[in-house]
Every structure is written in structure tokens, then in C-alpha cells.
Amino acid sequence: MKDSFSNSAVNIRKIQRPQNADGKQSRIADYFASNVFDLRAMVKRLSSQDLDVMAKVMKLGGKIDAHLAERIAAAAREWAMEMGATHYCHWFQPQTGATAEKHDAFLWFDKQGNPIERFTGPELLQSEPDASSFPSGGIRSTFEARGYTGWDPSSPMFIMETENGKTLYIPSVFISYHGDALDFKTPLLRSNKALSEEAVKTLHFLGEKKVHYVSTSVGPEQEFFIVDKELARKRIDLKFSGRTVFGRRPPKGQELEDHYFGQIPSRVQAFFNELEVELYKLGVPIKTRHNEVAPGQFEIAPIFESSNISADHNQLAMKYIKSIAIKHGFIALMHEKPFAGVNGSGKHVNWSMQDSTGRNLLDPGATPHENLVFLTFLCSVLLGIHDNADVLRASIATAGNDHRLGANEAPPAIISAFLGNTLDKILNSLESGSGDIINAEKIMIDLGISHLQGVAKDNTDRNRTSPFAFTGNKFEFRAVGSSASISYPTAILNAAVCDGLSKINKRLEARAQNGRVSDNIILRVLKDVIKETKKIRFEGNGYSQEWLDEAKQRGLSNFPMTPDSLAVLADEKKIQFLIQANIFTSEDIASRLAIQQERYIKQSLIEINCALEMAQTQVMPVCLNYLEKLMDNVKLAKELSIPSPAIKFAEEFGKEFNHFFSALNSLKLQYDKISNEECYEHSKLNSTAVFIGQHILPKLVELRNTVDLLEGIVPHNLWPYPKYSELLFGID
């Protein structure tokens, strides 16, 4: 008998790759960034002087004056229309986690009333979308609807294609009428600027006077699940929350580890092929694609880029993953934990710093001086993480990530750093060394760190259980959730490192002579920092109970639930580093706290509502019908005086159904205590979030357990929605 949810054969979607003039398939390099208005596209349309200004702004940031903006707008319109675009939009990142846009046509009228195409400098620089419906966290009144998008010239414009049209997209910041940041991009840009200033100051103390700026680069790995579209649409929970609130483990999951790096299924391969073509045209440098650990789970990873552009590109990647998946008969799930019992999805943010000479400041060097620079910046990162661990944890706190963190598949909610055996021993040696450092170069040679180039990379294993793992020339922030915008956690990480640099700079400045600090003094300062930050360094298994116990003894915070984690944003001392660096104001942080709390409440209630509806309208009727059939069998057996196992089976099933009914009523009872609009009042956001986390979600888990048990008893063909065995293994 054919399964009621089995998917009929699906033809593999074929795509036409870009071709050259000879009709042959183009190389990736030939069409990479072909839809991007970058310096290559500007060459034919701007003067060399304008190009120089744009090259500087795109690398360092900065403002464009009105006259240059007019020339760039004209060039961008000409280029976009040649590409077939009819509209333009300011593309921005409100605090919804998604992107937003409002399209305007190039259409205008001249003085004689004739239709013309127009795009001016002021239109490029700024737009005014209605901001009243975007999250503001109480920083502005509802009636204050005005918001502004402002062009970010450091991230190039691009053409977005659809089946029936093309639009010029302008990466932008989003601010209120009073100048408050309402988005994720603005804090990231501010954090880049603040970190650069402190890092340059540090390098100047180290004698590196020729360095003019420092930038951060990011390479975010993106994990996601692919499920069959027709199967997914038969589940209320996947449709509305992106997560299965019910679902029994299939007979086979990921225990054989055969999916990881396995052969990519043909349908998924076709999806990847189309995804990469579209992203390459937008200049998104996707390098890697592969099967992840869980069945139905996959990953793409890009080449490193500047953090601002990387954040924009990750948003585009998520958008295209979802839209192209649909074309191939799939649904892409970005939720951090769409399926219980198998690994969830994260977004490992690989982060590093480069100076204006192109040097990676987290790359060990070939001379004692180079390694002194390396160790100084390494210690700055450790100090920033140590002093601001709680806020870093809050930056990745979401309802979805709570299901994933610390679940033997992702780092724990405890913030720690892993350096690997080589660096750990070096720092321990520096810490325990003599207090009177006479010859810094000799000390470094004695410690075996006069030439670290390649050594640290080769001797630093990847620790997948650590939230911050050093992997040779970068840190891997592994705790970021798969659905998150990387802009916000990257901004907080930048700010934390900026704080670490600032504190080291103050110590160096107090001992500087003529703006220069001797290597001996630097090593003394680093020795103190190593001692101060030792408690966040952990080289072992972050999944283990031993680490949880040890972390508690060390005094490290552990916030497994979002409400507790977010509460630190109300602590003035803990958020001071963000304010001092001019990345946020105290009002900004208060508003973002309210937005994150409200989002946690809404996401949780959506999942709870899905569970209630599925339990009451799907699970309950099916179980009642099945129970009725069992009772009919029992009645027939008694009438015929035939011994039947159906009697005992019906009794046991009845007990399990009663457990289900009891759990359902228990969840409804707790839910009714907060199911009103008052729970969204700002004064009640924290208490509502805490109540949901402590009292309602545990009841949802109890209900889930009873439903999943019933799923294993009720005949397969009667169950009302697709099971894990179909969802996770339905794409081959």
C-alpha cells in the first residue's frame, strides 16, 4: 500500500549556466560579480579621481559628498538600466532578522510632462520608508513613523533578478528621525571603526607606525536542512515556526555518521548548482558545499571577506537558499533545531583582523617581533572575551538557539576560549616566567616562540565544543545560530575586542616613552593579562558535566535560557564597553533588550500555538478514532468469547492517551496565564519571558513526549502528518 505522505517522483530541475560568446559554459571567474556595481563596473562611467575616492570609501568607509553622489547615481542608473533594471531600492537590515526593501521606479517626468528615467544623488544617499511597523523596542512612539535609510557606500550596489524583472539594490543603514540605529548594520559599522582606532593605537605602541587602519574579516559557515516541500507543507509546525514541535525519532538517525560528507543527493546537487550561480553573480564567494552530520542537513561556506560585506552576503545567501530550494521542490529550514534527536544548525562565524599592510594580526609570525604583535592581539581578544562574556552570550540568545546550545552538538552556553596545546603551553610559560624580563627576544626564543609561523596552525586542533576556538589564524565563534544575522554578534565581538585593546593600550600608555613601549614592558603587560584571563581558557570537552562543574568553580556564567541571558543587557556595568566605544547608547541597548525579549516571547508562543492546534485538531481525533477501533475489537472478542491481546493493548493505549490529554490540559492551563496583550508591555517583557521559559516550555516538552509515544503506537497510515522518517529521508 502506498504511504499517504510518500512523494511522487520529482524531475530534477535543470539550469542553464552562463555562457560565453562562443556558446560554451563560462568559467566562474567570467561571471563572478557580474550583477555588482563594483569598481570594475564603475571604471567605464566615473573619472579616475572619483574612482580613487570610491576605492578609499569602499575599503575604509566614510561619506560621499553631494556632488560625487550625483555622478555615482547617474552612473549606477545607466549601468542598472543596461542590465535591464527598472527600479531601485534601499536594502536594509531591521531588527527582525530578515532584510527589508521598498522599490521605486526610475520613472519621472520632465518639466514638459514627458516621462523620463531619473535617479539623483539625494535619492541614492537617502530614502524614507515608513518605520512605524519595524521593531524599535520603545525607543520611539508608534505615531513617530518616520525612518531613514542611508546608503552604505562600503558595500557595493547590486542587481537582484527575478523571473520577470530586475531591481538595483542599495545596501543601507536604517535610522530613526532622531538618529537612533534601528538596524543591525549601523552598530557593525560603528564597531569596525572603534576597533580600528584602538588596534592602530596598539600597533603604534609596538612600533608599527606605518599602519593606518585595521579591519575585521569574517567567513560564516551556514548550516541548514532541506526537506521535501510537499511533505513539509503538510505540517502546521514547519509551516509557521520552522521547527517540528512533535516528532518521534526514526529507526535510523545520524548514529551511523554516514551522511556527513557523504555523496550529495542528485536533487540537492541541482539545487546547489543553481544556488551558486545566482550567488556568484552577486559576488558572494561560496567556496564549500557538503552534507552535514544530520540526515537532510547541509552546509555552505564562503571565502573570507570584510565583516560588513560578509554580513550582507550572508543575508543574500539565506534569501537565495530559501527561494531556490522552493524551485527544486524543497523547503530550506534555517531554524536552529528543526528536528529533535538529531543535530541542530549553527552558523560558525570565523573572525580575524587585518591591518592596512594586509597582515593578519592573528597569524603567528616568523620573527620575535611579529610574534609579539601576534601575542598582543591574541591577549586582547582573550581580555575582551573574558570581561564581556555575558554580553557576548546575550548576542546569540534566541528561542531557537536555546534548543541547540550545550546539546552535545553545539558549544555550551558558557563562554570560554580554546587555543590548542601549543598556544596554551606558551601562555602558561609566559605566566609562570620570571617577573623581571631582561631580554624579550631571548625569552621568546627560550619559550620556542621566536618563529611561530605555521607551528600554531599545525598544532591547533579544532575544538567543536568551544564557543571561541582559535584555529591557526582566526577565532571561530561557533555559538551563533543558523537563522541569525551575523551583523549583531559580530558587532558585539568587535566591541569586546576593542575593549580588550583599549585596556591594554591604557597600560602601555602609562609606561610609554616617546610613544613607544619596549618589548620587555609589553611582555610584562601580556603576562598580567594572561593571568587575568586564564579562567576562560579551556582545552577540554565543553559538552562534559565535568566542564559544567569546573566552570561553576571558576566563576563563569552559565545562561542556558535566553531570558536569563538577555537580563545582563540591563546591567549598566556590563554594557558600559558598548557605550564607551560609541557603538550604542544606553537607550539603544534598552530598546534592543526589549526587542529580543519580545521576539523570544513571540517565537515561543508561535511554537506553543502550533503544538496546541496539532494536538487538538490532528493527534486527538486520530487517537480517538483508533481507540474506538480497538474497543470494537475488544467488544467483538468478548462476544465471540475469544481471548484477545487487543484487550490489554486497548487498556495500555487508553492510559497513554490519558497521559496525552492530561499533558495537553496542563499546557493550556499555563498558556492561559499569559495569553493576552499585557504580556507585551515593556514592564512585563522580562517576567513574561522568564515565565514562558520556566513554566510553559517544560509543559510543551511533556506534551511532546506523550505525542511522540502515541506516534509509535498508532498505525502509520493513520498518523495525521509526515513523520521524521519521511521528512529526513525524503530527498534522495
Automatic annotation (TrEMBL):
InterPro entries per UniProt: Gln-synt_C, Gln_synt_N, Gln_synth/guanido_kin_cat_dom, Gln_synth_cat_dom, Gln_synth_gly_rich_site, GS_Type-3, GSIII_N
Please name the GO terms that the record assigns under molecular function. glutamine synthetase activity
What are the recorded Gene Ontology BP terms?
Answer: glutamine biosynthetic process
Cross-referenced Gene3D superfamilies, in alphabetical order? 1.20.120.1560, Glutamine synthetase/guanido kinase, catalytic domain (3.30.590.10)
Which residue range or ranges hold the GS catalytic domain? 192-619
* Occurrences of domain GS beta-grasp (ranges): 86-179
Pfam family for this entry, one: Gln-synt_C
Instruction: From the record, give the transmembrane residue ranges.
Output: none
**What family is this?**
Belongs to the glutamine synthetase family.
What this protein is called in its record is Glutamine synthetase type III
**Organism from which the protein derives:** Fluviispira sanaruensis
